[in-house]
Design goal:
alpha+beta; eight-stranded mixed sheet; two-stranded antiparallel sheet; 10 strands
């Protein structure tokens, strides 16, 4: 099953929170309210556990329970909307697994044991984010909700923009879009 998901903008490659997306987000978005997105660490590749990269994707958060019940990996193509409103594909990740509650809790404990969770909180503070929102179940039941292997990831270049006739140009919400026939039509510049 292939899905498409928007992720919050991050000018530093989704390795740590920068706080730059909050300036261009709508006033009611999590990123605007709290100054970061849980996806800001999505490609912190050195943080692996037994070959798995654990992360968070907002679109998965919205239908987490259904994905866990289905128990099937999904292929995800991620896109972002930049502050200048241009859209671009970020990555395609094959065989993404949605974490059940126990797996998410175990992954969080592993992050805490390795000092990664503390690093995340420190980076939030540096970026001016609201650390109290991080881990608050009101916003997200878990701070980690997916896992994938790096060899299953293909990154798009930072200057490869989606063309005007691509259906992704009509999508704006942070959710999983099922059955979208997207075109990997990109232009540079």
């Amino acid at each position: 099953m292939h899905k498409l998901a928007r992720i919050s903008y991050n000018s530093k490659g989704w390795r740590w929170p920068i706080g730059d997306a909050r300036k261009s987000e709508m006033s009611d978005t999590y990123n605007r309210k709290h100054g970061f997105g849980h996806e800001d660490w999505l490609f912190r590749d050195e943080w692996q556990i037994d070959g798995w990269r654990y992360a968070f994707i907002e679109g998965v958060n919205k239908i987490h329970r259904r994905l866990v019940e289905a128990g099937e990996p999904i292929d995800l193509t991620l896109f972002t909307i930049q502050p200048d409103k241009r859209r671009r594909y970020v990555a395609t990740i094959r065989a993404v697994e949605c974490l059940n509650d126990q797996q998410a809790e175990d992954a969080l404990h592993a992050f805490q044991d390795r000092g990664w969770y503390r690093a995340m909180l420190d980076e939030l503070e540096t970026a001016g984010g609201n650390a109290a929102a991080f881990g608050d179940a009101q916003w997200a039941k878990h701070i980690l909700n997916v896992r994938f292997r790096l060899e299953n990831m293909t990154l798009f270049g930072p200057n490869e923009f989606i063309q005007a006739d691509d259906p992704v140009m009509r999508l704006s919400r942070y959710m999983l879009y099922p059955g979208i026939k997207y075109r990997a039509s990109i232009r540079t510049k």
